[in-house]
């Protein structure tokens, strides 16, 4: 049995942590809104009032939060940050989708504290988190990777060792950039098909059966056809990830820049909290 702290009980974290509890580990949880963490008390979780309190005496500290700012606060807050109490036997695991720059900075802070660090973001959303079928992209040295793999495997279907620190963050931003670009283009194609004198369902059903269409894009296309925009990967987070990717490349990516502006426009049209496929609503405007 391992002692694990899990920081961030949002849509992903609250689902992921159950697999650790069910495997028999002693899990301490923290969330900025403590009422969300309290819901896990009946499942066997210990509730901490701060990240610093949660990190005391743990074998692993895992963070799953919204963005760079939230990650910085969780780890480095002067009074309540996890690194203020973490010991040198602990592994710090950052599973949030963050910028490459901040991931490297956080790794440097961990190194200064003598703490092993892995950036380990995931592919997948709420259904995969609930099923324990996430895909991990890990950036760390080999020793750290070997140490954390048994823990991550409880929440994952696949774990990829991508390379050194920030390699995980890099591939996660690549994945989200590719996926968001595919959906934006498919949304435009669907809009075009709707104004043609054609059987749109037959067209889309054929497209989604072809090798050019990924399984993820096929699922998003079917959701657009069904007008299902329940949030799994909200547009506001899509825009955030595209901005991080552009930041890492000095915005010298003309196609990605256009896609980013498209999702920015979706936010301006009050679509921020809807799922990524709701960009199809923008195509109708």
UniProtKB/TrEMBL annotation:
What does the record give as the active site?
A: 172
Q: Where is the 3-hydroxyisobutyrate dehydrogenase-like NAD-binding domain?
A: 167-282
What residue stretch is flagged as signal peptide?
none
Which InterPro entries does this entry report, sorted A to Z?
6-PGluconate_DH-like_C_sf, 6PGD_dom2, 6PGDH_NADP-bd, HIBADH-like_NADP-bd, HIBADH-related, HIBADH-related_NP60_sf, NAD(P)-bd_dom_sf
**Keyword Oxidoreductase attributed:** yes
Query: This chain belongs to which protein, by name?
Result: NAD(P)-dependent oxidoreductase
Q: Which domain of life is it from?
A: Bacteria
Matching entries from Pfam families are given as:
NAD_binding_11, NAD_binding_2
Q: Which GO terms describe its molecular function?
A: NAD binding; NADP binding; oxidoreductase activity
Show the PANTHER family listed in the entry.
CYTOKINE-LIKE NUCLEAR FACTOR N-PAC, OXIDOREDUCTASE GLYR1-RELATED
Instruction: Give a yes or no for keyword Cell wall biogenesis/degradation in this entry.
Output: no
The UniProt keyword set, sorted, is: NAD, Oxidoreductase
In this chain the 6-phosphogluconate dehydrogenase NADP-binding domain maps to 3-163
């Amino acid at each position: 049995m391992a002692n694990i702290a899990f920081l961030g009980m949002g849509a992903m974290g609250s689902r992921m942590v159950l697999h650790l509890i069910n495997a028999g580990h002693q899990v301490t949880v923290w969330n900025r809104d403590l009422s969300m963490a309290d819901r896990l008390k009946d499942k066997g979780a210990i509730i901490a009032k701060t990240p610093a309190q949660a990190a005391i005496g743990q074998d692993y500290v895992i963070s799953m939060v919204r963005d760079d700012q939230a990650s910085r606060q969780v780890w480095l807050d002067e009074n309540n940050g996890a690194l203020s109490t973490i010991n040198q036997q602990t592994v710090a695991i950052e599973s949030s989708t963050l910028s490459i720059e901040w991931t490297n900075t956080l790794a440097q802070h961990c190194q200064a504290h003598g703490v092993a660090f892995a950036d380990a973001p995931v592919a997948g959303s709420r259904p995969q988190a609930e099923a324990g079928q996430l895909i991990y992209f890990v950036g760390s040295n080999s020793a750290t990777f070997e140490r954390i793999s048994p823990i991550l495997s409880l929440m994952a279907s696949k774990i990829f060792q991508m390379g050194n620190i920030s390699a995980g963050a890099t591939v996660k931003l690549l994945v989200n950039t590719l996926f968001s670009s595919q959906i934006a283009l498919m949304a435009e194609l669907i809009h075009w098909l709707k104004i043609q004198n054609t059987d749109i369902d037959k067209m889309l059903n054929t497209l989604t059966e072809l090798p050019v269409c990924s399984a993820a894009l096929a699922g998003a296309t079917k959701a657009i056809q069904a007008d299902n925009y329940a949030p799994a990967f909200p547009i506001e987070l899509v825009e955030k990830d595209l901005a991080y990717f552009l930041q890492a490349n000095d915005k010298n990516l003309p196609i990605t820049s256009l896609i980013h502006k498209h999702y920015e426009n979706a936010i301006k049209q009050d679509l921020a909290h809807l799922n990524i496929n709701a960009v199809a609503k923008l195509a109708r405007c």
